[in-house]
Write a structure and sequence with these properties.
This protein is of the alpha+beta class. Helices cover 31% and strands 26% of the residues. It is built from 13 helices and 18 strands. It has an 8-stranded mixed sheet, sandwiched between helices. It has a 5-stranded mixed beta barrel with strand order 1-2-3-5-4. A 3-stranded antiparallel sheet has the order 7-9-8, with no helix packed on it. The chain is elongated and about 80 Å long.
């Protein structure tokens, strides 16, 4: 009887190892997809696409004339040689090529080009193919690095990763931008955030985090909104101040930028990304930030309780010009525009112990301290004409006792798009969902 032992073997070696020179002068077999072909008369240059890298292969006419096309899956055997002009400084002098599979039709787009020059609708309709282009792959490699840095930072601080429900009986944020479901005859919703559940888990683990989708039924289509996006959330107990949360996010950003510079350097170069300085991040009060931007750029304040997108851009511009920072924490948002679980500032209850992080003129994070006292939470609900009995399972944690706590949520696509210099959030989402798109 055959048994598995957990031993994975393959006759092919990793493209990364070949490019790093580990097999120079040794005959190897590498497998991958044919990304590009260039016939130069007597020889053909074949670009082989692997998990993270591409490898240039040089084929003689005899080897090349076997019907190989772009997006064939192939196994190439040959000798890796040093070649400064090749990507990564190594090329493979191919001796044999085996076609493992062929595409059934010509590609609808030339993915071997550096830039595809497609309009957004066309690109999103062809997303499964477009994502094979090297530039698109680099965007999502950067996104992977951000998630990895988030996990590594929080694990280093003794956080526990959790996974919370996405079908819920009540919305955490309230409002009309919530997807409604028929749950076996009962009213249910898609989760706007993991807020209630991560607070509940503070009572169990004290420090928790999650990277997961959240859903917003935004009935508009803008470059900065998605109906499903990925939120990187954490919640922590026994904080001294909401500023503790800002310090943890700064630590995450510092680690993320260092990680990207060192282990994602090729993707950084491919996208021409300017890594921001996260060594320190300035903090401005909400009312102060609005006033400074309005005075400098001559745009009057229209909404005293929230930041309009144009104001975020101007605040980001002000901080860059005056404080030389791509980031700014905007603190003490008005209570009127913060959720019912946000703790009011004891010094002035019109404002909350909360913040947003703006990055290059866009809000990428919302966070703050939560109400941990049962009566204080009930009183704030009643003051907003809410019905505490509808939140019985949530209020259970307050009745049972909660430490001073708080947390945040980072919009992964927003952080990725601003870091990569993308002008639409959809480019930073593998398969975007918006008002008109449910496929692919």
């Amino acid at each position: 009887m055959k048994k598995t032992t957990g031993t994975y073997r393959t006759d092919a070696v990793k493209l990364t190892d070949v490019i790093q020179g580990l097999y120079t002068g040794q005959t190897v077999t590498v497998k991958g997809m044919v990304h590009a072909l260039h016939n130069m008369g007597g020889i053909t240059f074949l670009t082989l696409r692997g998990t993270k890298n591409v490898l240039q292969c040089v084929l003689s006419q005899e080897v090349a004339l076997r019907g190989v096309t772009e997006e064939c899956a192939v196994a190439v055997t040959g000798l890796p040689l040093s070649e400064p002009r090749a990507p990564g400084g190594i090329e493979l002098a191919a001796e044999t090529l085996q076609i493992l599979s062929r595409p059934a039709a010509p590609l609808p787009v030339p993915i071997s080009k550096r830039k595809l020059a497609l309009n957004l609708d066309t690109e999103l309709s062809l997303r499964p193919i477009v994502l094979r282009s090297l530039r698109e792959r680099s965007i999502f490699r950067i996104q992977e690095g951000l998630c990895r840095a988030f996990r590594e930072t929080l694990h280093s601080l003794d956080f526990t990763e959790i996974h919370t429900p996405k079908i819920v009986h009540a919305g955490a944020e309230g409002g009309s931008n919530i997807f409604r479901l028929d749950y076996f005859g009962r009213k249910a919703f898609l989760a706007q955030s993991p807020q209630f559940y991560k607070q509940m888990m503070v009572g169990a683990y004290e420090r928790v985090f999650e990277i997961a989708p959240v859903f917003r039924a935004e009935k508009h289509s803008t470059p900065r909104h998605l109906n499903e996006y990925t939120s990187m959330d954490f919640e922590i107990g026994f904080i001294e101040s909401f500023e503790d949360i800002m310090e943890i996010e700064t630590l995450f950003l510092q680690h993320a930028m260092k990680l990207l510079e060192t282990e994602y350097a090729a993707d950084i170069a491919a996208l021409d990304i300017q890594i921001p300085d996260a060594s320190h991040i300035p903090c401005l009060r909400f009312d102060q930030a609005k006033r400074l931007a309005a005075e400098k750029y001559g745009r009057p304040i229209r909404d005293p309780y929230d930041l309009e997108p144009e104001e975020e851009i101007n605040i980001g511009r002000y901080v860059k010009e005056e404080l030389d920072s791509d980031f700014v924490f905007v603190t003490h948002y008005p209570s009127k525009k913060r959720p019912f679980y946000a703790m009011d500032d004891p010094a002035d209850p019109r404002f909350t112990l909360s913040f947003d992080l703006l990055f290059r003129g866009m809000e990428v994070t919302t966070g703050g301290q939560r109400i941990h006292d049962y009566q204080a939470q009930v009183d704030k609900m009643l003051a907003r004409d809410m019905h505490p009995e509808e939140f019985e399972s949530y209020l259970m944690i307050h009745k049972a006792g909660m430490p001073p706590h708080g947390g945040l949520g980072v919009g992964l696509e927003r952080l990725t798009s601003k870091l990569c210099g993308l002008d639409n959030l959809r480019y930073a989402c593998l398969f975007p969902r918006d008002l008109s798109r449910l496929d692919p």
